[in-house]
């Protein structure tokens, strides 16, 4: 499996951000071709460190499926909404990264 992770910093309006994310952004991202799994969480840091406000994980069968999704019209729509959403709700930062996921306990 190959995973894309997106971390969002705290928005200026958490309730508005969460509503937009749930009602607009998730349906757009759910249209990505090859998407196998999509999770989102509001993490809590341990030991006093800061945690991202929201972490989304998009799972694909392999890197080729993820690359195809990245080039799709659905991703263009999703990316445009992410940009608009982070501006509208004054999200201080958004970090994206990808990687091969391996099971270490099998």
Automatic annotation (TrEMBL):
It comes from Nocardioides koreensis. NCBIfam families: EthD family reductase (TIGR02118). It holds the Pfam family EthD. This is EthD family reductase. Gene3D superfamilies: 3.30.70.100. Residues 13-84 form the EthD domain.
